[in-house]
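Troubleshooting log. The previous structure file for this entry was overwritten by mistake, so regenerating from the original sequence record. Sequence copied from the archived sheet and checked twice against the printout by T.R.
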Amino acid sequence: MGELGMSDVMLLPGEYFVGGRQFRIRTLLGSCVSITLWHPDARVGAMSHYLLARHSAREALLNARYGEDALELMLAELALLGVHGRDCHAKVFGGGQMFPGLGKGETVGHKNGEAARKMLKKHAITLVSESLYGSGHRQIVFNVRTGDVWSRQVDPGVAVLACKPEKA
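Regenerated output below.
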């Protein structure tokens, strides 16, 4: 249990979580992207940590490593809780360039971020905030009780000993 009786959940790459107001969801993103969905009345939220926007070849089962699938999985679990995705507020984070100066053109992180915007628009989910791109990784903390998401971006090569999140 974390502070104020909240339970902390740590998402690894390719995972997602859906839960109520007693949860605080955390992750660490590089080029990956997290979509958070929050229903202000029900105080229910969901968060993904996906590696790629979509499959190169369609798999039989949904896989949260892919943005399209992660969003479908979150929306299905929210529906089981009586929450419709279009009634949620969305926030998007990540898509960082982990090795600035290497490679040219559109990065995996940029593709992931643009895909998140398109997926939310397709599902008529309002995007209320985002923190995308740039260099380095992000530490993300989503408080399902309040809907607040804190994001702290750290440049590549900088060691982080302590984190005081910045509210997004």
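The first strand starts at residue 7 and ends at 10. Archived copy saved in two places this time.
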